[in-house]
Write a structure and sequence with these properties.
about 140 residues, alpha+beta
Length: about 140
């Protein structure tokens, strides 16, 4: 089965529920165990939250949009995130230490545990950042 669906969202924490709903709707079209669908939705939600939280850290309000594209081809799931926020320095993207007990800071850890790969790509489009998450399913 091949799927390719994309949707854009306002860059806002209020849009994160829509991101999760879109992701669930796409994954419900794919035969996967429910726990794997839930993990994939978590990875997408964490990446989207990181865009809102870090890419727009010093922006009080924006009309910018981020695009999320979910594609499945030949059992390779690819999830693309496109935004116009602050340019990401890939070497600076890391989770906090696991023994540092406090809320937050583990989104990158969850993404790395759930997905096979997470790569920032240079993009010729109008976007500043292009994150690609991949997973063999």
């Amino acid at each position: 089965m091949n799927i390719s669906e994309s949707k854009d969202f306002l860059v806002s924490s209020a849009s994160l529920k829509e991101v999760r709903t879109f992701s669930r709707d796409v994954f419900n079209k794919i035969e996967l165990p429910q726990d794997q669908k839930d993990e994939l939705v978590l990875a997408i939600a964490e990446a989207a939250q990181n865009i809102v939280k870090h890419g727009y850290k010093d922006v009080a309000e924006t009309t910018d949009r981020m695009e999320i594209k979910i594609s499945l081809k030949d059992n390779e799931l690819e999830i693309g995130f496109f935004d116009k926020g602050k340019p990401v320095v890939p070497g600076n993207v890391q989770h906090r230490k696991l023994d540092d007990i406090k809320p937050g800071g583990l989104g990158t850890y969850f993404i790395k545990q759930i997905m096979d790969d997470a790569v920032f790509k240079k993009n010729e489009q109008q976007w500043v950042n292009h994150l690609v998450l991949t997973k063999k399913i």
